[in-house]
Design a protein that fits this description.
It is globular, with a radius of gyration of 19 Å. The chain has helices spanning 2-6, 38-52, 56-68, 101-113, 120-134, 154-160, 168-176, 182-188, 216-225, 252-258, 265-272, 277-285, 287-302, and strands spanning 197-198, 238-239. The chain has two domains: 13-160 and 301-311, Orthogonal Bundle (Peroxidase, domain 1); 168-296, Peroxidase, domain 2 (Orthogonal Bundle), CATH 1.10.420. With 324 residues, the protein is mainly alpha-helical. Residues 1-23 have low confidence and may be disordered. The protein contains 13 helices and two strands. Helix 2 (38-52) packs antiparallel against helix 4 (101-113) and helix 8 packs across helix 13. A two-stranded antiparallel ribbon has the order 1-2. Helices cover 41% and strands 1% of the residues. It holds the Pfam family peroxidase. Its cofactor is Ca(2+); heme b. It is found in: Secreted. The active site is at residue 66.
């Protein structure tokens, strides 16, 4: 993976979004005094993990979405089931998520430098920021100062996170509820440019008959990847939305769905929906525009209802609440 990454050199121009200091209780460079190397340590760990396990960069972006869209950006996603509390990770919407153990790798490095100082919620946010860069995406100046939740919101996951085959209108409503407009939602779905889709989430477009919105040749390729209409849900059978640049966060995703090569229902509906189609066209034509809109939307997502002050805690272990 390291050799693949080294083939790409990206000029990353920071996208600075200025807000009044302290707005929503978080701010840029929150740890400048309490743990000056906090963001540098996270970046070092994200980079090392990427070169050892390239798919971690994709996991960091998905973690941010799953954490922040459910109630708050508060690392509730990372809590294990304990004392009668169900973990959000155990819900069906978290199917296919992995690499949680490497959050602990980052946390251990931070605890060694600054014990009980950097929240797991900030690790989720900053690892997503740095993971996006490792995938060739834009750099985003994110605020920090989030606190960690003491409870899980597993019961709210199903109503907060869209299903893989929900309509585009449902997905738009989900993001609009946290302040992300149609343009931003189309940009965030561009994260499908990287990563994978398990066969169980796409076979309904292949069997018993092929979805007519799928390119016929592409459908045949997918059938080879997913030869059964009843795949083992635990089997590692999958395809990628972007076969040309599968580990680069770029606008190839939009070109593919314009060519009827989207994997999920929502991917193809971005083209058929008149509200989203113009943005798909524009992002397919301009990678810089896609990056700009992706950065703005990810920033809004990262600031959804953060816990600050006495609302939460700094977990010593991201998997469990502190024992006082």
């Amino acid at each position: 993976m390291a050799s693949f990454a080294s083939a790409f050199i990206f000029l990353l121009i920071p996208l600075l979004f200025q807000f009044p200091s302290g707005e929503s209780g978080i701010e840029v460079n929150y740890y400048s005094e309490s743990c000056p190397r906090a963001e540098e340590i996270i970046k070092e760990q994200v980079t090392a993990l990427y070169h050892k396990h390239g798919n971690t960069a994709i996991s960091w972006i998905r973690n941010l979405f799953h954490d922040c869209v459910v109630k708050s950006c508060d690392a509730s996603l990372l809590l294990e089931s304990a004392s009668g509390m169900e973990s959000e990770k155990a819900t069906s919407r978290s199917f296919g998520m992995r690499n949680f153990k490497y959050i602990q790798t980052i946390k251990h490095a931070l605890e060694k430098e600054c014990p009980a100082t950097v929240s797991c919620a900030d690790i989720v946010a900053l690892s997503a920021r740095d993971g996006a860069v490792m995938l060739g995406g834009p750099y985003i100046e994110m605020k920090t100062g989030r606190k960690d939740s003491k409870i899980s919101y597993a019961a709210q996951v199903a109503s907060s996170i869209p299903n893989h085959n929900d309509t585009v209108s449902t997905v738009l409503s989900t993001f609009q509820a946290i302040g992300i407009d149609t343009q931003g939602t189309v940009a965030l779905l561009g994260a499908h440019s990287v990563g994978r889709v398990h066969c169980i989430n796409l076979v309904q477009r292949l069997y018993p008959t092929v979805d007519p919105t799928l390119d016929p040749d592409y459908a045949e390729y997918l059938k080879k990847r997913c030869p059964s209409p009843h795949p083992d849900p635990n089997a590692v059978l999958y395809s990628r939305n972007d076969r040309e640049t599968p580990m680069v966060l770029d606008n190839m995703y939009y070109s593919n769905i314009l060519s009827h090569k989207g994997l999920l229902v929502v991917d193809q509906q971005l083209v058929s929906d008149p509200n989203t189609y113009p943005f798909v066209k524009k992002m397919a034509a301009d990678n810089g525009y896609f990056h700009d809109q992706f950065a703005k939307a990810l920033l809004i997502l990262s600031q959804n209802n953060p816990l600050t002050g006495d609302q939460g805690e700094i977990r010593k272990d991201c998997r469990f609440v502190n024992i006082n």
